[in-house]
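Lecture 7, part B: from sequences to assemblies.

Below are the input chains for today's worked example.
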Amino acid sequence: MSSLECKALVEGLLFVADGPLSMDRLVSILPERDRQEILAAIEALRLDCERNARGITLAEVAGGYQLRTRPEHAEVMRRLQKSRPLKFSQSALESLAIIAYRQPVTRAEIEYLRGVDCGGVVKTLLEKKLIRILGKKDVPGRPIVYGTTREFLETFNLKNLNALPTLKEIQDLAELPVYEEQGELPLDPSLSVPFIQPLLQGEPES
Amino acid sequence: MSSLECKALVEGLLFVADGPLSMDRLVSILPERDRQEILAAIEALRLDCERNARGITLAEVAGGYQLRTRPEHAEVMRRLQKSRPLKFSQSALESLAIIAYRQPVTRAEIEYLRGVDCGGVVKTLLEKKLIRILGKKDVPGRPIVYGTTREFLETFNLKNLNALPTLKEIQDLAELPVYEEQGELPLDPSLSVPFIQPLLQGEPES
Amino acid sequence: MTGSPTQLLFDPLQYSGYTVRVDTFEGPLDLLLHLIRKNEMEICDIPIASITRQYLEYLELMKELNLEVAGEFLVMASTLLQIKSRMLLPSPEEDEAGEAEEQDPRAELIRRLLEYQRYKDAAAVLGARELLGRDLFSRSLPFPDELEEKGEDQPLVLELFDLVEAFRQVLSKVPFERFHDVISETISVAERIGRILDKIDQSGSVLFEELFDEEPLTRELVIATFLALLELCRLNSIKVAQSEPFAAILLIRGNESLSSEIEYVES
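Predicted structure of the full complex, as structure tokens:
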């Protein structure tokens, strides 16, 4: 009975939590149970959800566990939502992809890669908490560098950043000619080819 | 199989809803199912929760249905709430921001900027060790002046105070002057970059 | 290959309303990729004259339709023209023949196109995932947030961006003329104040010289440190002592008692 009870407790906790719960967090909330027992309970709960045609699934995201509705029910669930469903613009996705794969990355680097001004997009992504300010880069001008957040992992249903397919894998899918590994971007005006200079002049002075 | 699917849908809806769902509401969200079918699904879900030692129960409250944790688990659920990371209230955040950017600063100056009393917030920030007393200002009344601490830097993962992004850097993100730069299109060879002009004359048409 | 830009770029069978379609390129790189794909060209060996002509025709079309052409598109236009003209130059017969490969004027553009293509694909992969809030839903019942309900020593959740935004909001409500300058300047003095207090608090006292024994000692750092020192003296937060003339200058904490000050805050 004890393991059944543990499973019920874990389900209740995941139900109440307002975000993914990490294993450490579960262990600290349930000091009477050991880690092994909790892990088993999570596994049992996951199987329960799959086998018994439940309306929820147990997802492993953002370094924790969370209950979520089934993807095949998305359309019905959306009817319940008051707010409009989440939608990403192409520019938001491209900027997010660059930040996710190249973090820590500066705004100038994102703009160099995309070839367009990205200030507005970066601001929106910051406001939506999908990216965050990581600090400043140790180069002249000390530009701000950005990276992705826990909310990014939660939103994109990722266990951690390593769960993102590598750029190489994506490229193989698209069957593009393989291009060399990620290197420094030639953003230093003195090093770069002449034509990107005009873009850099619009950069904020800091 | 259809009734299993209906039960799963109802479970998903009750899971996502931010309050009790009435039968009328469920019927309107699930127009493909009739009321009888939905009622049966709810009954099946309730039995599921009871029989299978689940962590949640289906309650009939305030003219609707709602999923809830079990009353006997209340104590554990409270532990979860207590172990929650603290989020900052807007007033705490604003005061902290003023202190970070304008230190050394007096409480009167913070209150002048925010337009409200800040005694309680300042005390809390002191207790959280995010700010500290730097000394007393040499003006009549000798008010205390505040500044941020090493813990402040650690909390924000900052190397030093110079790594704080400036207002200008954030404001520059929001501006959208992309189209301001619009100029003549360099379509006419005579308008294009001067030094390549002679070369264009010999251009072979492809 | 020639034709009016409209025919060239927008197959009417594919796009009924091309004016809407015009706006959907993310930028010059996106437009170039579109042209390359449409013409079934190889990114690694772009026929630069042809692509340049089509690119310029597209910009001309945008102009005819009275659409705004962002600066980036114009920058790329002159880049293309520049590359095209450089392709026409006889290749310089330098003795460093090994670098001839690098001299392809298109190299940088090709590199950027390939790189952009990678992130465009990555964006598509991201967008195709099952998204929380679109395909999956979790419960949305946050606990009420209150910092005031303290007690336990819980970790703090704070984002730098929130801090800056909070400051921006405060300032936006305040008459501006009083608070425009200083910030970046103040910060380094403030930072020095913090450093000096940290040093004193660590060992009870610190030698004047020790304030200047760190990092690459720049002129700005010395000035900021000295201003910080003056400020701390003015605030009576530290005292400057010397056992005899020309002896080492010692800095110690002022005699203010902290506990009484916290009470003062409460009042």
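Note for the exam: Residues 189-206 of chain A have pLDDT under 50 and may be disordered. Keep this in mind when comparing with the next example.
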